[in-house]
Amino acid sequence: MTNKTKYILVGFFLFMLIVAIVMKISSNRLKEESKKYEQLFDMISKIEHNRALFDMKNNIKIYNTKRYKNSIKISENKKEHIIIFKDSLANANSFIRKLANSNTVLGDIEIKEINNKIEITMRIKK
Hints:
Elements: H1 3-49, H2 56-63, H3 66-69, E1 72-76, E2 80-87, H4 89-100, E3 108-114, E4 117-125
Helix pairs in contact: 1-4
């Protein structure tokens, strides 16, 4: 083998090593992000299972707290209340945790991620 071939092989192996390291780092970050969402969905499933215990008075207390007041929009029509919560993942996590640990009325829940913010839409039938 010539020196040129050896340099090409060494360069190729170094390149592959760098690619492997970058892939490992990115997969670790992805796992951390997915854990945050798993916690959110676990709490939502807890809410879904306890739906029979909920009443509307506790909802009003939670929605009117200082931490969530700016993030929540409540609208009403003839058939249902529509509550839209839009904030960061951390605040969405604490909001869902608060709902999961209280007796609140919930209807259909829809979750979207929009521009690094979580939007939770709840429809509560009257």
